[in-house]
Amino acid sequence: MAARIAISLESPIPLVEQIVAGVREVIALGEIAPGDSLPTVRQLAADLGVNMNTVARAYRALEGDGLVQTRRGRGTTVAASAEAPARDIESIRAELAARTRDALASARLGGLSRDEARDLLLEQMDLFWDKE
Amino acid sequence: MDLFRILFPIGMIVAPLAFCVLFRPGLMRVEDPAAQEKVRRLMTWLIVGTFASVGAVIGVQLVYPFGGSFLWLLFFPLWFGLAMPLTAKKYPSLSTQGHAQAGAPRAASLERREPESVIPRAAWTALWVMWLAMTGLVVAGLATGASSISQTIAMAVIVPQPVIAGLICILGPFCTRLAMMEAEPLPEDAPEDLLTAYERHRAFKARFFYILSALLVVCVLGVAGAFAWGLEGSGLGIAGAIVGSLVGVAGGVFGTMASTRRAKINEQIARLQTA
Predict the structure, then answer these.
(1) Could you tell me the residue range of the domain that residue B40 belongs to?
(2) Long-range Cβ pairs for the range A121-129 (8 Å, 24+)
């Protein structure tokens, strides 16, 4: 099955960030491999029904993260280094902790119990790592 | 010939109404009562407009012989002003792109759609080879002096044809590439058969552009070749008109088929979203 991304126009998260997160996720899940082509900006914008600038900004952000590369005539492809960490492991740990803390704060304020939050976290982790 | 001058404009004028009456695409009709009322109103205007236009053609032809044949141009207001809006209103899925309604997630495939996956580069190269061969025949015909037409007419009628055919060869791949860029939105949990439907639709469009380009190149260079080899005035004019019209009609039929196929995909998406 072809890799897909999903966005929501109603989400408080900006569209650019949703697209970046979607592409990052499919790369992390191995659904697209280094060297694989991404759709053109025009194609993805048409399919998602968003402005081309939105997709172009998302691709630039992904390029800045070292996940994709754009070459004249070849379009945008997944970078060879996409599967290797582009930053040092400590900064990745710090970012994960900050983002998780933020998400857990929202969950707590939203009324989720500890067990529900843990189950959801584990469910998401199972997408990226083998179950222990 | 006089009969043709009457029948051609009448045929063109009646075509929009005939299309609206005979077009049965198997799509869902509009359910909104206000829109249904609008469809009825447009149909009434189309019937009135068609009969009035046919009356005008016959009237003008009776007063000014040859004058009525130019009234075939009334086809355009009847088609673009009434028949097309009527059809789009009657079958709403023809005029949507299938994107999710506000609030529902929108998904998209991350697979790049390559035109070469349907029409390989070699096929376009073959079209250029055909262009080269037929243009060579045209030039050879001109060099032998087989044609009795003057050099001025030869320059005006024959020389532009290879240029036009060359433009068609250039525009064909461009149009195919554009067709690949048509929006293919997906609901969040799109089934595999929806992707297959998109793939088939894409292949249909690409093949349509290729076949149409090839037909046009043959027709355009065929006309030039007939003139260059002195075959004018031997009934080829009528044959050219018939073949040209058939190519035009085929383009219209394939275009309508492509729109209908796409509208069916839109309806499938709408059903998935409401399920």
Answers:
(1) 1-95
(2) A127/A29, A128/A28, A128/A29
